[in-house]
Amino acid sequence: MSLLEVAGLQAGYETGQVLFGVDLSVEEDEVVSLLGRNGAGKTTTMHAIVGANVPTVLGGEIRFDGTDLRERRNYQISELGLSLVPEGRRCFRDLTVEENLRLAANHAEDPLSIDDVWDQFPELKDMHDRPSKNMSGGEQQMLAIARSLITNPQLILMDEPCEGLAPLIVRRIESIIKDINGKRDVSVLLVEQNVAVAMAVAERHYVIDEGEIVEELSTEQLRKDEALRQEYLGV
Ligand code: ATP
């Protein structure tokens, strides 16, 4: 049994259906990417999985560790060990780094200690009393990942964590994702438009187009398939 199993997922908004049968799975200790162009349905897939209010799920199955997530509410889903790092980071701007982390830990059943987080993110420890609004985009992204990690999840869904970041900080985020997976056995489902980032961290890749999964490939296959990258990813 897969850790996360999505089968035949259909979902949409008042304005219309967006997902027309998404099938994907994530195994324990695996990093998987979900690639696709703007508007292909990546964020909608993530939100449907974690039960964010929008979109509306119209059909299909979403199972996490054997539990039917469609029956669960958003806060219950995080208690099961699933965490979303949303696009745009969404840290509490007036709270300090440490306050953001402690707030997330307070809402978790079995959180990591703050020292565990400082070990993984020494740069955040150095700025523990800084309000998040005074941090760079890359630092805020690290805080968003740390805030997710402190809840001690089994699976983290990350929505374009490297968007808009400079190459050096992108390398740092890549190494954080590898560490979280390698040292802490956390699985990651990574939404990306940046194929290079996906190939650097994930072993398996899904390509979504117009609300359907059109390909599932290994990193090696993705690297070789220039025609596919052109057709579905525009690179
Ligand atoms: P992006 O990289 O631009 O975020 P994406 O692959 O994540 O792309 P989605 O955000 O899932 O794509 O959007 C898929 C489709 O759903 C788009 O046509 C978008 O306009 C529409 N959509 C997204 N969010 C909403 C919403 N809250 N209400 C109505 N339509 C939406």
TrEMBL record:
GO terms for molecular function: ATP binding; ATP hydrolysis activity; branched-chain amino acid transmembrane transporter activity. CDD domains: ABC_TM1139_LivF_branched. Residues 4-235 form the ABC transporter domain. InterPro entries: AAA+_ATPase, ABC_transporter-like_ATP-bd, ABC_transporter-like_CS, BCAA_Transport_ATP-bd_LivF, P-loop_NTPase. Keywords: Amino-acid transport, ATP-binding, Nucleotide-binding, Transport. SMART domains: AAA (SM00382). One of its GO terms (biological process) is L-amino acid transport. Belongs to the ABC transporter superfamily. This is ABC transporter, high-affinity branched-chain amino acid transport ATP-binding protein LivF.
